[in-house]
């Protein structure tokens, strides 16, 4: 009497062997770490040289040929572009990078034999700039604008605290502000921290740099926090008969509707999440224009509003625009002005309306 059918016996032998073979393949792949680079991000100047190293941390069983690939051949020159790593040796090779034209590119690689694990970690983001001085100036301007714009909230907070009153403060301005800065924070945090959104931005602007910097993220989050403090003062201090107008309430409802629809479309994969972030930033820019239009023209007075806030806001707006213009020139990336139109628009409208407010305060309504 046979206890096992021959095919059943084959299966009992075949499947363990298959599992053993697969496990050996996995172990073999895991033993090879492939090629690494010494630095994934480098900056070089036009007509100047930089470098990075290709590292073979463990010896290969066979000879491996590697060819470097660039997105934009006219931006940099790489020497060498091809190299052969010999079997059973650990080698490092230095790649010299010479800047040709300003811009941004990513270097990747292909290998022979064509095994993904060999070059999966081999990528370098290269930024080619016109001037090192402009890089430093952009950094300085960015953090000065952050300080000026961030500090600009506190003269008003102090004025409210000293008077124990928010009479004269435009409530529409404050409540539009919290919505605007909350949406601007979503935009900045998304572009600065979420890799999938960064990849989509790079696809649309292959030679452009990410327009959102750390100072942008910190500013928007701090601005939302400072606005919440001002709202708390509006609820606690003397406010007379002031309240949020019906017009502002309707606009806030409309903005909430637009954000909800855009988020739903992004969740349903009808639009990209980058587009959702753009819609958030456009609402912030719209709020900036509206809130200035509503602010002092109707009151014909600047009493209760801190002029220190306006002077600091003017400084921050001017430096914010200057930082973006410097970066656009330094990296030949004028598309970045359109890649983050909200940041440039905030600076532009802040400067224009701050000038108008200063004229109101010192000339038109000085009495």
Structural notes for this entry:
Belongs to the cystinosin family. This is Cystinosin. It is a multi-pass membrane protein. It catalyses: L-cystine(out) + H(+)(out) = L-cystine(in) + H(+)(in). Keywords: Glycoprotein, Membrane, Repeat, Signal, Transmembrane, Transmembrane helix, Transport. The chain starts with 5 loop residues before the first helix and ends with a helix. Strands 2-9-8-4-6 form a five-stranded mixed β-sheet. Strands 1-3-7-5 form a four-stranded antiparallel β-sheet. The chain contains twelve helices and nine strands. It is elongated, with a radius of gyration of 29 Å. It is 58% helix and 15% strand. The longest helix is centred in the N-terminal third of the chain and has 26 residues. It is α+β, with helices and mostly antiparallel strands and 367 residues long. It folds into two domains: 95 residues, Sandwich (Immunoglobulin-like), CATH 2.60.40.10; 233 residues, no CATH class. α4 packs parallel to α7, α5 packs antiparallel against α9 and α10 packs antiparallel against α12.
What descriptors fit this protein?
2 domains, 367 residues, four-stranded antiparallel beta sheet, alpha+beta, 12 helices, five-stranded mixed beta sheet
